[in-house]
Amino acid sequence: MSIVQEAALIAGKDLKIETRARVISQQILPFGLIVLLLFAFALDPDRGVLRRVAPGLFWVTVLLAALLAISRAFSIEAEHGARDGLRLSGLDGSSIFLGKAAALALELLIFEALLTVGVVVLFDVRLGSLVPLVLASLAATVGLAAAGTLYGVLAAGIRARETLVPVLLLPVVAPVLLGATRAWEASIDGVTSDAWPWVALLGIFAVLFVGIGMLAFGPLLEES
Q1: What residues contact 43, with CB distance under 8 A and at least 6 apart?
Q2: DSSP tag of 155
Q3: Second label for 57, Cα 20 to 30 Å away, from 37, 95, 187, 200?
Q4: 3-class SS at 190?
Q5: 21-76 pLDDT, tens digit each
Q6: Structural domain tally of the chain?
Q7: DSSP 3-state helix, strand, coil percentages of the chain (rounded to 5)?
Q8: What distance in Å separates the CA atoms of residue 187 and residue 128, rounded to the nearest whole number?
């Protein structure tokens, strides 16, 4: 099989597990909506505070959801011995990485789409320029998924992986949170010229971590 076929096989496996468990729809999505509701009640919408903090709050919520999804994905494989099956499958490490990152990215994109509706409705946000906003979201999601998959397997063999993954991942994805927030702010305000440099930064981060993940995931999987 080609690397694309192998990656599609792994992605299909992860997505099928998620479809059956419904963790995104029954746990992570309600968590995100609760966060939005809490801030909608806590802040004063009459002063425009909600609209100003909406981009940062959106991406912090996405990051927390990504941490939950990463921890769940690797804990399932640890509990049921699936990691040993991946090692013995004969699949290339880069294919496994791409498949797992693609599945995580798709889950996050669905979560982000639904969360965007919540932000527009609850925070009265009007999306000014959609093209840079969508491109920034795609690049940021790919970067988060690639970095999360890489650090997820790095901490997979450690007992305290649930707490270690956030400690390892948060400093690394800080540029993603910054770039995505700034790109969203510029897109909401309709100032596309300010959004494109942040979109470029997010694209560089995504390409960088996809490349690193393809090279490092296989050896890390063997050692985990």
Answers
A1: 49, 50, 53
A2: T
A3: 200
A4: coil
A5: 676 667 777 888 888 888 777 776 555 777 788 898 899 999 988 888 887 777 76
A6: 1
A7: 90, 0, 10
A8: 6
Centre a 10 Å sphere on the Cβ of residue 208 and count the other Cβ atoms it contains.
13
Token representation of residue 202: 């997010």
Hey, what amino acid is at 146? A
In the structure, what pLDDT confidence band is assigned to residue 169 with cuts at 50, 70 and 90? confident
Exposure on the CB side of residue 40, measured as CA atoms within 13 A: 15
pLDDT for position 1: 67
**Contact call for residues 217 and 93 (beta carbons, < 8 A):** yes
* Cα distance between residue 180 and residue 161, in whole Å: 27
The residue with tokens 């985990």 is: 224
Residues, the chain: 224
The pTM assigned to this predicted structure is 0.90
Using CA atoms, how far apart are residues 136 and 142, in angstroms rounded to an integer?
10
Which residue range forms the structural domain that includes residue 150?
3-223
